[in-house]
Amino acid sequence: MIKLNANHILYLLQAAEWTVLLSLIAFAGGSVVGLMLALLRVSKVGFMRALASGYIQIVQGTPLLIVLFLSYFGLGILGYKLDPLVAAGLSFTIYAGAFLGEIWRGCIEAVPRTQWEASDCLGLNRFQQYVYVILPQAVRLAIPPMVGFMVQIVKNTSLASVIGFVELARTGQIVNNSTTFEPFAIFAVVAAIYFALCYPLSVAARALERKAHAGR
Question: Which fold has domain 6-215?
Answer without folding.
Answer: MetI-like fold (1.10.3720)
